[in-house]
Amino acid sequence: MAITGDDVSLDQIVPVSRDFTLEEVSPDGELYILGSDVTVQLDTAELSLMFQLPFGSHTRMFLQEVARACPGFDPATPDPEFRWLSRYRCTQPQSQLPTPHGWNSAPGTWPGCARIGGGSSHFDDLRPNGKGLFVDQSSWGQDKPEDLLPRQNKSKSEITDMVRSSTITVSDKAHILSMQKFGLRDTLVKSELVQREEDYTYIQNFRFFVGTYNVNGQSPKECLRPWLRHSVEAPDVYCVGFQELDLSKEAFFFQDTPKEEEWFKAVSDCLHPGAKYAKIKLIRLVGIMLLLYVKEEHAAYVSEVEAETVGTGIMGRMGNKGGVAIRFRFHNTSICVVNSHLAAHTEECERRNQDYKDICSRMQFCQVDPGLPPLTISKHDVILWLGDLNYRIEELDVEKVKKLIEEKAFQTLYAYDQLKTQVAAKAVFEGFTEGELTFQPTYKYDTGSDDWDTSEKCRAPAWCDRILWKGKNITQLSYQSHMALKTSDHKPVSSVFDIGVKVRNEELYRKTLEEIVRSLDKMENANIPSVSLSKREFCFQNVKYMQLQVESFTIHNGQVPCRFEFINKPDEQSYCKQWLNANPSRGFLLPDSTIEIELELFVNKSTATKLNSNEDKIEDILVLHLDRGKDYFLSVSGNYLPSCFGSPIHTLCYMKEPILDLPLETIRELTLRPLWTEDDGSQLENPMEIPKELWMMVDYLYRNAVQQEDLFQQPGLRSEFEHVRDCLDTGMIDTLSASNHSVAEALLLFLESLPEPVICYSAYHNCLECSGNYTASKQVISTLPTFHKNVFNYLMAFLQELLKNSAKNHLDENILASIFGSLLLRNPAGHQKLEMVEKKKAQEFIHQFLCNSP
């Protein structure tokens, strides 16, 4: 669970006063790993404190802000007393500041860490929690209370020879130059260094092992050496990915699984014995996990490590499908490793394509310099993409596929591979390369054997598990499956690469740097930057709910290097309205260079209601500011087509005509109509009991999808959602033609978009209090406004109908309660993050109504 401000209290307050110092340090004898945690020494007259912060842009920004807050004090000025802090101090003073246990052990050793491979080595992401304990935070936001204790299952030999640090070294000049305090001049130096990189770097090959394994929710039952140690030479880098790590409902809905540590240990124990490895990063999204290790001697050359996740499951969020990625700089080469699990089933090829595109567009990594725009996957020198991509073999029946496999006619079979045809059509993985498939399909087997699927479904074999790459100087040495492992219904796949990495020649680097600095010295800094814009007025026509529109323009710089940034207008908290975004919103331009800026307009649940009511309009002015230069003004205009998405329940009940057939003034009046207003006898009398749009979707699902497997768990297609939305907004329901999954997802998005949830905010806490008491819960529902009560009862009746067909659709009360609990029962505005306890109470509240007759 993510921690919010409500979850913490201040045990220790350290004012930034005259005697305050804060600096990064490195314990004696420690080997540098620029991607690991940052060790910080804090000193004042009263205390000395050493602690760690997680490596990344957030820590870098924090340290920069602290540095900015310490400009020095005038000796004549008395010390500030910080009286305002008194109300935040703990009522019981601490008698002694705790010290992390084991900190003062042998030089170069920290507790809880050890080597991996070649006579053991383990590299846990342990971080001090401020109370003298070290906490495992190697996966994001998934700590349980019992995890807040040191691991006790490590032998004495496993807690020696730790390898950690992210202290800045002289060799990490690119990292230093990215810091804000060095300003425009050093940004220009860095840019010129990038331009002239070939002058001071040479290519050196490093061996990369890339592996992927869908483990089907199983725990490790067999040694992974046949997969991870099959090559004679020890790899320099290991990139190991898993899918379906845990298939339990707890993992899906609450991000909680013990299997992360089980598989991490299984991998760490089976790395090549010919080297010692340091774990650089672990990232997990539900069952999708990615591990990155490097040889210990290479750790000093790893920097700028960031990790991100993208869920592409139902409603574009759930992490049962999606991707995780780790990006880092190795020497002077930027590398991004992506592990993805795309949509299943043979007929869902288009959905897989959409998942791929969503991961590419939504996966963004913060840069060390917060003034620079985030990096996308494509902005890297080398991209390694692995995972259960789930592309199948089509147009052949099961027996024909098995016959071709038996004959080892893999190339004949490959002609029918969906990924091959989609890449050829440039629908996905454009510019990527895959090695020749010389091994039999890796899915689907009977667990514990090499026999093809003998279940009732009898899935056709397919090459679901794949590894692709993109970039220069990459040679694939092997690409194979590993039949010896039988834990799962998939077989693991591996590929070994020699990758040419740009390594810096320090002498040539210094020479190049000196030339750049001398050139800059001759530049006239007094010149005022000036740019020209290809366009300053932008009109977005017929904007629709959740349908992206993009307009672009080009900035062409003059002869003076400059920084640009969209800045806030007076009395506004953002440079643009919430439905608009500029990409990139800031950046740096060399002389006579250009950059394309995209203005992205996207209306979602947060902005739709005010656009429906005409309280907000598609109108804005953007201010583009040049550092040391002038401001440029950009005009944005357009029109929004009102939608049932984002409209209140009671408003829709009074709309007997489709929303797009109503005058804008009528929509405005109905949207602004108070929730508890009684009918006034006007033309709005005799409202519908529930919104017609809700009835249309539920009726469609009732007629077509009560036996649909994975309903409300598998996402639909974006194009089909747009079609469903248009049918609802125009009333042309007879033309509705979409998959059951797309209509189901549209229903969930409709409920999520309601500005007042089905169970009103005012009833939220009462519902949580009486969860587990069905009689009291029914009483709370009876107090809801009539339209909301009708919708709740209607939905419960529909879900109970689905449960009557659970033998076919495989739904149960827990799944439906988890999905609908967070939609029907939402916490009041301003407290959007649900605690785990609240999530489970909301689930329990809905669960009661699914298990009891009305």
UniProtKB/TrEMBL annotation:
Entry-linked Pfam families: Exo_endo_phos2, INPP5B_PH, OCRL-like_ASH, RhoGAP
Domain named Rho-GAP: residues: 682-854
Q: Does the keyword Ribosomal protein apply?
A: no
Tell me the CDD domains matching this sequence: INPP5c_INPP5B (cd09093), RhoGAP_OCRL1 (cd04380)
What class does this enzyme belong to in the EC scheme? hydrolase
Main localization is membrane
Record-level GO cellular component terms: early endosome membrane; phagocytic vesicle membrane
Q: Name one GO biological process term.
A: signal transduction
Any one Gene Ontology molecular-function term assigned to this protein's record: phosphatidylinositol-4,5-bisphosphate 5-phosphatase activity
Where does the record place it?
Answer: Cytoplasmic vesicle, Phagosome membrane; Early endosome membrane
Keyword Ribosomal protein attributed: no
E.C. number? 3.1.3.36
Alphabetical keyword list:
Cytoplasmic vesicle, Endosome, Hydrolase, Lipid metabolism, Membrane
**Family membership:** Belongs to the inositol 1,4,5-trisphosphate 5-phosphatase type II family.
Q: Would you tell me the protein name for this molecule? A: phosphoinositide 5-phosphatase
Gene source species: Equus caballus (Horse)
